[in-house]
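HUMAN: Mind sharing a backbone?

ASSISTANT:
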Amino acid sequence: MENTFKNIDEYILIFPIETQEKLFELRQCIHIVTSGIEEYIGYQMPAFRYKGRPLVYFAGYKKHIGLYPGAEGISHFEKDFKERNYKFSKGAVQFPMNTSLPLELVRKIVKFRVEEIDSK
């Protein structure tokens, strides 16, 4: 049976402690970017909304943490992902579990998404 989470805390608490720490760190990093970011669960993942629109999602896995900033959020930072050897696809980037989270890059990605929503 699939898990259905009521909130982000519930989601994070199913993971081993080391993963929980990274997920809490990522969540805090997203909130620091701007005020008015709302949390919700979307597609069974922690998700964030800004001005009523989806901003970013993230998910924990055994060997990485996935960040889902949408296609524009990925294509805009492709060079950064390649420089750091992160696996990425059209809508997601993977941060390996055995390295520290690139918090400065995450802030830039979230800020980019905020500006994208503000410009619409």
Observations:
- Helices lie at 8-12, 17-32, 70-76, 78-83, 103-118.
